[in-house]
Amino acid sequence: MEPKKYSSYAEIEHDLEILKLEKEIYFQKMILSYEKTKESIFPSEPVQGFYAVYKKVFSGTVGSILKIALPYLISWFINRKRGD
After folding, report:
1. End-to-end Cα spacing for the chain
2. b/e per residue, 11-49, with b = 16+ CB within 10 A?
3. Which ranges in 1-84 belong to alpha helices (H)?
4. I need a labelling partner for 81 at 20 to 30 A (CA). Which of 18, 22, 38, 68 fits?
5. Chain CA centroid to CA 65, Å
6. What average pLDDT does the segment 56-67 reach?
7. In the UniProt record, does the keyword Membrane occur (predicted)?
8. Which residues contact 66 (CB under 8 A, 6 or more apart)?
9. Bigger pLDDT: 54 or 18?
10. What is the DSSP letter of 7?
């Protein structure tokens, strides 16, 4: 590839402006690609919905009772004998 020859500073400035804009376009494409990848890996809406339900259920007196009773129920279910 042969180097380009310029006849004025205006041509150089014009090409530099084009290169600057191309750089910004590629940078924005890279950011968009990153955001799409992040959204596909970490689905935020279902997780936030689950967290809201979890927070609502486990708050207040019912939540306190569930927090105390749930480990006992799980250990009972795991340790129970088959056939009982």
Report:
1. 84
2. eeeeeeeeeeeeeeeeeeeeeeeeeeeeeeeeeeeeeee
3. 9-41, 44-57, 60-79
4. 68
5. 34
6. 74
7. yes
8. 57, 58
9. 18
10. S
